[in-house]
Design a protein that fits this description.
The complex is a heterodimer of chains A (396) and B (142). Chain A is an alpha/beta fold and 396 residues long. Chain A contains 14 helices and twelve strands. In chain A, α10 crosses α11. The chains are: A alpha/beta (396), B mainly beta (142). Chains A and B meet through α4, α5 and β5 of A and β4, β5 and β6 of B.
């Protein structure tokens, strides 16, 4: 086994509890409130922060604007914006900045009022953007959900994957959500019907949104946000909580290409790099925090991350092995995921936050003696242009 | 005038002013589906753009597709909040592989029921939806 790096650790996390702020808070306020709590969780304060990370989704020149708003003067500024996986990219970049000695305390924040703004993310029209790719595609009315559905359709065609198998993803995350009071509150606030553990039959019997994806295979649109504090080994040893080390990272992109394979994502590129750097294998992973925008996202990514071979994901997820209290596989999205807890548009930061909770022993669906976690973000659209960020995390 | 336009929602229309794709859209007025291939490295570049993605001394040439291809994947949209498409559900969106190579995103027309009549591997041909300044390249089963 390669020597694992112990250069940077996540030392503070916070998940903003409300999924419906009723227009009373804006995204910047959610970022600042979350940052303060995450710094307090670490036993640090604003003036300790010397590296700022922002996905630049809010405004131009976000690195400048957010520094002023927080009242900090960072020497590392990174506004990588690649969609929902931006925070896995930020964690990767923070590790490198800290390892290079350019920073000691990095702060990642996210805030969104997608629900309050009634953003029609999943079934809205694709914006009439002026990017050349958009100018060739927007006429077709491919909703975001339909984009992912086309991956599912192709996966079914090539490998015989079934809706019942995809539904395993939804039932596992709901199983975890029902144990997480914040997720239950979220489903209440967003007026979910029948808030309870779901069955395969519930999922495949729910309304079809874009064939072959059903309603219960689609993530919610909530408000929310959070923050993550990453520190050097020197700082981490004096923090309030046990460090969760960033052991390996990988980054990649993929986009529509002539003859391209829709059943694989950019995770095929990012995951081996991350696992290789960490010196661990998928079989050793206790916790899999995998971006569940839709059921098919997780199925595809389980394969791409190497938990099973390409095409075998459908059979592999059968029988509930992704539940926190089952053996034979990692526990999937133990906070309830985007499907049943929290999806304000870019949920990558929550993957890191729940992975840390697990490795600290603080999850509402705690896996006994959890040692290793993977957080994998998919940004953009799985069936189109997207980014992949893989982060391997471990405790001492 | 502005009010009249509001009454009838339209498909999101391509912008003829977008520099990489303007030549493609101008050609659609004559129902020509044009694509680029590099005379230097033979790469078929799709979507259209000003540079070759296969080599750094590219020489992109425009060609016209015969307009036949195969459905690579599709979805039938049941829910859309878009002012135009909400009245069109259920409708099929598909990636189509043209025989010459380009894979483009489009809608499948000319089927009785998109829920049963659209398939991966289905052979399709271009079915143009005409507008004043350009035409939209949809497909229908052969």
């Amino acid at each position: 086994m390669a020597t694992q790096g112990r250069d940077a650790a996540i030392v503070g996390v916070y998940e903003y509890p409300s999924r419906d702020v009723e227009g009373k808070f804006n995204p910047l306020q959610i970022k600042a409130a979350s940052a303060a709590k995450a710094l307090a969780d670490a036993g640090l304060t604003w003036s300790d922060v010397d590296a700022i990370y922002d996905a630049s989704e809010g405004a131009p020149m976000s690195g400048l604007m957010i520094s002023e708003y927080f009242g900090i003067k960072p020497s590392v500024i990174d506004t990588t914006g690649v969609g929902g996986s931006s925070y896995e990219f930020h964690a990767a970049h923070a590790l490198r900045a800290i390892r290079d000695g350019k920073a000691k305390v990095a702060l990642l924040t996210y805030g969104s009022t997608a629900h309050s703004n009634a953003m029609a993310i999943g079934a809205g029209g694709r914006g009439g953007g002026v990017a050349p790719g958009d100018n060739m595609e927007s006429f077709a009315g491919q909703t975001l959900i339909a984009n992912y559905a086309m991956v599912a359709r192709r996966h079914m065609h090539e490998f015989g994957t079934t809706s019942e198998q995809l539904a395993e993803i939804s039932t596992a995350t709901r199983y975890h959500a029902m144990r997480n009071p914040e997720a239950v509150q979220a489903m209440n606030d967003l007026e979910f019907l029948n808030i309870r553990e779901t069955t395969i039959e519930d999922v495949v019997g729910s309304r079809m949104i874009a064939d072959p994806l059903h309603l219960l295979e689609c993530c919610m649109v909530s408000d929310g946000g959070g923050a993550v504090v990453i520190a050097s080994a020197d700082v981490a040893k004096n923090c309030a909580k046990a460090p969760v080390w960033i052991l390996g990272t990988g980054e990649a992109t993929k986009y529509p290409e002539n003859g391209g394979d829709l059943t694989s994502s950019a995770g095929v590129e990012s995951a081996p790099v991350a696992f290789g750097e960490a010196g661990v294998t998928p079989a050793e992973i206790d916790i899999a925090m995998i971006y569940d925008s839709f059921s098919i996202t997780v199925l595809t990514l389980l394969e791409d991350l190497g938990f099973c071979a390409k095409g075998e994901g459908g059979a592999w997820v059968e029988g509930g092995r992704l539940r926190f209290d089952q053996s034979g596989g990692p526990a999937l999205n133990t906070d309830g995921g985007g499907l049943s807890s929290n999806h304000p548009g870019m949920r990558g930061i929550f993957l890191l936050i729940e992975a840390v909770r697990q490795l600290r022993g603080e999850s509402s669906s705690q896996v006994d003696d959890a040692k290793l976690a993977v957080a994998h973000g998919n940004g953009g659209m799985l069936g189109g242009r997207h980014s992949a960020g893989t982060v391997i995390l471990g405790r001492d | 005038m502005a009010e009249e336009q509001k009454k009838v929602p339209t498909r999101p229309m391509p912008k003829l002013t977008e520099l990489d794709t303007a030549e493609f859209w101008h050609a659609t007025k004559n129902k020509e589906f044009k694509y680029q291939q590099c005379a230097n490295c033979q790469t078929i570049v799709w979507h259209p753009r000003a540079h070759c993605t296969g080599c750094v001394d590219g020489d992109l040439q425009w060609h016209t597709s015969k307009g036949e291809g195969t459905i690579y994947s599709f979805s039938v949209v049941r829910l859309s909040y878009h002012p135009f498409f909400r009245s069109k559900v259920p409708y099929a969106v598909a990636y189509v592989d043209l025989d010459e190579g380009p894979r483009f995103l489009t809608n499948v027309t000319g089927v009785e029921d998109p829920l049963t009549d659209v398939h991966i591997g289905q052979r399709v041909t271009l079915d143009w939806e005409e507008y004043e300044e350009l035409s939209i390249p949809l497909v229908k089963p052969v």
